[in-house]
Amino acid sequence: MSKSLQDQLLKAGLANKKQAVRAKKAKNTKEKLKRTGKDVGDEVTDAVEKSRQEKLAKDRELNEQKNHKAREAAIQAQIVQLIELNEVTDRGEIEFSFPEDKLIKTLSVNERQRDALVAGALAIVKLADSYKIVPRKTAEKIAERDEKIVLLCNAESEDEQVEDEYAEFKVPDDLMW
């Protein structure tokens, strides 16, 4: 007759008497619970299921991070494309000053561009380490994606006559104080 696996492991020295008693007791307890009708959960299958759930949760989180990075890269590519397609390239010799964080930067523009920047028809955006001039609508589209890129976008001025309450009163040229 062949011996049981438990006897074989004991004889080979791979298990000791204490482990054999513990295994036999666990088996008897499971069988008793099955006879009474209670749900018997196998510790091994529970542990496997728990580790599988943890792995799925970790994989979901990593996938979400990867998707977030991909969305950010796509947004940055859209911003670069908007700037490159709509950039105003001609420059002049007039220096136009604008704020960036706590610093005042200057950009060379022509008279028409300076007036458009002041009026709000053009805006200044930052691409990498350079400053670009783009139309206002383009700057608004860029601001929807990332507000930090748009450095200067003045509000479009309506009629100056509406703003100037004293436009009808002329100041004489020879007025002396």
Q: Could you provide a short overview of the structure?
A:
Helices cover 54% and strands 16% of the residues.
Written description of the protein model:
The protein has 177 residues and is an alpha+beta fold. It has a domain at 48-157. The chain is 54% helix and 16% strand. It is built from 6 helices and 5 strands, in the order αααββαββαβα. The protein has helices at residues 5-12, 17-36, 43-86, 111-119, 136-145, 160-163, and strands at residues 94-100, 103-109, 122-127, 130-135, 150-152. The strands form 2 sheets. It has a 3-stranded antiparallel beta sheet. Strands 1-2 form a two-stranded antiparallel sheet. Helix 3 packs antiparallel against helix 5 (136-145). It is rod-shaped and about 125 Å long. The relative contact order is 0.07. The model has no long low-confidence stretch (mean pLDDT 85).
Give average pLDDT, whole number: 85
Q: Summarize the amount of helix as a percent range.
A: 40-55%
- As residue ranges, the low-confidence spans are none
Write down the Rg: 38 Å
The chain-level structural class is: alpha+beta
What is the number of helices? 6
Question: Which shape, going by the Cα principal axes?
Answer: rod-shaped
* Order of SSEs: HHHEEHEEHEH
Distance between the termini: 128 Å
Strand content: 15-25%
Largest sheet: 3 strands, antiparallel
Major β-sheet strand ordering: 4-3-5
Count of individual beta strands: 5
